[in-house]
Every structure is written in C-alpha cells, then in structure tokens.
Known about the structure:
By secondary structure, this protein is of the alpha+beta class. It is 38% helix and 23% strand. It has helices at residues 13-22, 39-44, 46-50, 75-85, 87-93, 107-116, 123-126, 146-160, 175-183; strands at 4-7, 55-61, 64-72, 131-137, 165-171, 187-191, 195-201. Helix 8 (146-160) links the parallel strand 4 (131-137) and strand 5 (165-171). The protein starts with a strand and ends with a strand. Its EC number is 2.3.1.-.
Amino acid sequence: MTVTIRSATAADLGACDEICLRTGWSGEDATAYYTDPALLGQVYARPYLLLPEGIGFVAEDAAGVAGYVLGTPDTRRFEEACERHWWPALRARHRDPGTSSPVGLSPDDRLHALIHRPVPAPEEVIADFPAHLHIDLLPRLQGSGTGRVLIERFLGRLEAAGVPGVHLGVGRANERAVGFYRHLGFTTLLERPDALVLGHRLG
C-alpha cells in the first residue's frame, strides 16, 4: 500500500469532514450519534484548513484521503482567530443549549455549547506547549505506521518554526490513542475525569 503525505488544503474539506465523523466517537464511527453529520468537522477540522493560523497534513492512498493531522503553532492566536472569523457564523446557525455542562445534553448540543462557549487552553499548558494538534485515521490506515509519519511531519514543521512544545487532548476511553501518543513521547500534562491533556517538548 502506497501512502502519500502532503500538506492539507481547502480542497480536502470534504474528506477531512468524513474522517472526523467516522473517527469521532473515541476513535470509532460517530455517524449514529449525531443528527447533524457536519458538526464534528465544523468544530475540529475545517477551521484548521480555512484559517491562516491553522496547518496540517493529509495521508492519501489509492482510494483517497484517509487520514490527517491538523493543528496550529500558536493555540492562543488560533483561539482569537476562531472568535473573530469562525465561531460567529456557526453561532448564527446553531442554537445555544444554555449550558456548557455535558450532563443531559445530546452529542449535537455538546458541540453547540462548545461553539457558543469555546474552552480556552489552560495557561499552564500553553506556556510551554503553545501548539496543539488533532490526528485521525480511517480504519484502513490504522496500524500502518501512517499515524507516526503524520505526527513526525507535523512536529518537524513546528520545530522548524521554533515552537517549544505541542499539546493535545484525548479521551481516557480511547486507550488505543493514549498508548499511541505515549509511544511517540507524549507525557501527561493534565488529568481530567474523562480526558487527558498530553504534551511533547520540541527542539
């Protein structure tokens, strides 16, 4: 199997939306859980492809784009860009559920809450790990080594820009992903009841 790694572009929007949905439930297919299948991509993929503060790479095989790593070198700057240029249009299209607590909310409304009240990255994390990333692979590329190559390409881009560290969030339930990140040298920065924040120093 030949897999090509290349820079992500706006032409990859549809493919990244699909990947985001098909891996959006702790690494499993989230299609059955969302009444709006576009929501996950709108929150976790599209802004990195369309805002200049985002960067990313995609993995493409003979059948098309089947994986991505998306993120930003500067989380605070990216958050500010989203507040100015990304969230307002989504807020106009999606109602505010009125609370940020996930208790009692549907998966759609949890994302609606995030759109209306995005949670900023903790200052104690971005002080040393200012970049962040998201990585997802369709099942046909999982376990192929493609994830490692995507991460290495992304980290190389950050190192070339002089970024000191990168962080990411991962659900505790996604044990396969947690093991993957730890194998690549990520360590725990913060522990939450249902999620971990992991970090990797660069340079």
